[in-house]
Amino acid sequence: MSAAPDGLPPLREVLRRHGLDPKKALGQNFLLDLNLTGKIARQAAPLGGHVVVEIGPGPGGLTRALLAEGADHVVAIEKDPRCLEALAEIAAHHPGRLTVISGDALKVDIATLADGRRMKVVANLPYNVGTQLLLNWIGGETWPPAWSDLTLMFQREVAERIVAAPGSDAYGRLGVLAGWRTRSRILFDVPPEAFTPPPKVTSSVIRIEPRAEPIDVPLARLEAVTAAAFGQRRKMLRQSLKSLGGEALLLRAGIDPQRRAETLDIAEFCRLAKLA
Ligand code: SAM
Q1: Ligand 1 centroid vs 129 CA: distance in angstroms?
Q2: Ligand 1 in contact with 106 (CB < 6 A)?
Q3: Homologous superfamily assigned to 11-210
Q4: Which of 19, 47, 89, 106 could lock onto 71 through a cystine, CB 3.0 to 4.6 A?
Q5: Which parts of the chain register pLDDT below 50?
């Protein structure tokens, strides 16, 4: 098989040579088309002058694209040690530009990876930990965060919940928490056939940017209010928020107790969180 444009072997050969049979438990749905990984990397432009953190590089298709598209330095965190040899080959091909961390991304505070430089996150996320990773990144103590933007692949249904507006079916806890501190938009869909093996559902690439001045409210309280309100989303708020103060709380916040969770915008949720 001939080499890919970056001079490294084609990704199918990488999988074969390193015995990388995809594991479902690790959310391994690989992208083997370097045109597609290039398209994703370009959505995160400009990459020059940035450290790019990649979660779950796997055999390295997106990693290679990020390097080819001009990232100064890529720090890739991979849980599956079987991928390390393949990633070491990419690092050797781009001396000094790729650092691989072997471990669980849930345990890494990505702010520590910036080292005083500008930072972005670009990833085809493992579906089983994607939402938790996003909540870790947007729920940090310090704001604005260490990253300037996130370009992430999620299952389409999760992406829709992240960007959801009040009143829509997809609007819920995730939409309020994401919308509170960030602006986000879906860039394009990726069909199941683009992955090896194909997942059951369509995926979407989404771009997330921090809001400069989100409403000042403790994350834990906003989480508590949204969990209670959307935990019983068909009920009136005076019922679903009973344990947090119910009708009296809603009246103090100037919100009609008969409304339902999905009708409240983010500013209203923040008002409730401040008073709860
Ligand atoms: N970036 C590659 C691509 O696009 O082909 C692989 C993406 S695959 C959807 C998700 C990757 O995340 C896998 O390589 C998997 O081993 C890795 N992974 C799963 N859980 C992880 C975790 N908790 N921390 C770091 N990597 C993880």
Answers
A1: 10
A2: yes
A3: Vaccinia Virus protein VP39 (3.40.50.150)
A4: 47
A5: none
